[in-house]
Target: Small ribosomal subunit protein uS3
Amino acid sequence: MGQKTHPIGFRLAVNRNWQSRWFARKNDFADTLHEDYIIREKLMEKLKFASVPRIFIERASARVRVKIFTARPGIVIGRKGQEIEKIKDELAKATGKEILLDIQEVKKPELDATLVAENVALQLERRIAFRRAMKKAVQMAMSLGANGIKIQVGGRLGGADIARTEVQRQGSVPLHTLREEIDYGTAEARTVYGIIGIKCWVFNKED
Model:
C-alpha cells in the first residue's frame, strides 16, 4: 500500500504554521473548533467567486481575528466596504463574538496550489479538455517562477465510462524533503458526468 500523507500537515511545525492559532481548555476545545468550522464554511460560501485559497483564524478571549487571503480583494471588500461589514455582522451573529477581518491579497494566484486547482476545476466545468486545462496551468505556473508543479485529475475524464487518473508535472516536486516549501490544494469540478477531483502541488523554493 502506498503511504500517502498530506503535504501541509507533514510540514507543520517545520516550515508551515497552523491555519487556526489559539489555545482552549479541554471543555471548550470542541465548541471552539466547531466555531472555526462555521466561520470557514460561511466565508467560503459567501466568497465563492473571490478566489480565497485559505483563511487564518486567531483568537484572544472573546475576540476573533480572521485573515482572508484572496486574489480578488475588491470582491471581498465591496463598494465602500459594504460587503466586508455585512460579512462581519453575519459572523458576529453566528458566533456571538467580536470579529475582526483582515484582507490580504495573493499577489501571484497562478502559484497558489488551491487557486490553480480551482482554476482547472472551473475550466473542466466549462467543458474545456482536461489535458489542455492542466497543460495551461502548468505552463503558467512555471513561467511565473515556480520550481515545479504537479497536477492530478481523477474521475470520468472526458465523459469516459470508466473513471481514471491523469497526472501532469513539470520541474521538481520534492514531496519527501521536509525543508522544502510545497503548497498543496484541492478542488472539485461538478460536471454533467459527475465530480472530477483535482489535486495540485506547487514547489516554490525559498530564496
In short: The domain at 109-203 is CATH 3.30.1140.32 (Ribosomal protein S3 C-terminal domain).
